Amino acid sequence: MPIAKADFIEGLAKGLAVLEAFDTDRQRLNATLAAQRTGITRAAARRHLLTLAELGYLETDGSHYWLSARVLRFAGSYMATSRLPRSLQPTLNRLAQQTQAAFSAVVLDGGEGVIVARSAGSADPVRHLAYGLHLGARLPAHTTSTGRVLLANLPKAEFNTWLKGRTLARITPQTEVGTGKFKALIDQVRRDDHCLARDAHELGIHALAVPLRNMQGQTLAALNVVGSADQLSDAAVQRKWLPLLLDAARELRPLL
Q1: What is the DSSP letter of 22?
Q2: β-sheet bridge partners, residue 118
Q3: Which of 61, 138, 152, 241 has the fewest CB atoms within 10 Å, measured from its CB?
C-alpha cells in the first residue's frame, strides 16, 4: 500500500538502491557507476558508498566498492524467520529424495524470480543442472517455468502493466522476447495452470512448474522440477512429473 510522502525516508531508499546496484554484471562499482545505476548524483552515491562501507556492508580498495559478507544477514534472517521457506523445504526435500531430481520454490520480485527453497537429488541428470540455481538466486522471470507461472497468476491488468514497455532479454535462441508472442505464451500458461519451459533460460535445461496457492486461492510461489530433455520428455511430464507437482501443491496448500 502507498504511504504518505512525509513517512517516506528518501535517504534509506537511496542507500538500498545503491546496495541493489551490485549484481553479477557489475560486481564492483565506483561512485560514477553507482550514480549511473541508481539515478542519483555522483556526490550522493559517493556518500552512500562511504557510509555502507563504514557500516560493513561494502568493502573497498579506496576507489571501487563491492559487497561484503555482511549483506547475507538480510538473506539469513529472511530464511530463518519467513514462514514460506520453512513450510516448503520439507516437501522439497522429500520430493528430491524420492525422485533424485531437483526442485525449487520461487517467488516473484519485480522482473525476476527468486529461489526461496531448493532441494536436489544426487543422481544423473541432476549433475548437469543449470548454473546459478542456488538458494537466493535471481532469474529473469520471462525465461523460467516458475517465473512464467507467477506472471500468469497475476491479475491480467497487473500483468499487462508489468509487460508494458519492458524489454525481454534474449538469454538463449529459444527465449521468447516478442511482446505479443510472450503475452500469448502467458495466456496459455494461465489456461494450463502449469508451465513447461525448454531451453529458454539455459540450453539443455528443461523445467516444469505449477503454482503454489494458499487456502484463499492466492498464488504465493511456484514449484518446479528441473532436469534434462530426456527426464522431462512430454510423455514423462504427463505421466509422472505433473501429477507429482500437483500432488505436492495440494499437500502444501493448508500450510501456506
Answers
A1: -
A2: 104
A3: 61
Place of cell 540455481: 133
pLDDT at 48 over 80: yes
The percent of residues in the chain predicted with pLDDT above 70, rounded, is 95
Which amino acid is present at 159? Answer: F
Interaxial angle between packed helices 145-152 and 179-192, expressed in degrees from 0 to 180 and rounded to the nearest 10: 80
Q: How far apart are CA 245 and CA 129, in angstroms?
A: 19
Q: Compute the distance between CA of residue 155 and CA of residue 108 in angstroms, rounded to an integer.
A: 14
Alpha carbon dihedral 84, 214, 142, 200, in 10-degree steps, equals: 80
- In terms of Cα–Cα distance, which of 82, 192, 211 is closest to 150? 211
State yes or no: cis peptide before 125, omega within 30 of 0: yes
Which of 61, 80, 58, 82 lies closest to 70 in space, CA to CA?
Answer: 58
Residue of 83, 89, 124 lying closest to 104 (CA atoms): 89
The position carrying cell 536436489 is 120
pTM above 0.85, yes or no: no
Give the Cα separation of 197 and 206 in Å (integer). Answer: 6
Phi, psi of 240 (to 5 degrees): -120, -55
In three-state secondary structure terms, 119 is: strand
* Whole-number Å distance between alpha carbons of 226 and 208: 7
pLDDT at residue 61 is higher than 90: yes
Sign of CA dihedral 233, 140, 151, 185: negative
Q: Determine the Cα–Cα distance for residues 197 and 210; give it in Å rounded to an integer.
A: 12
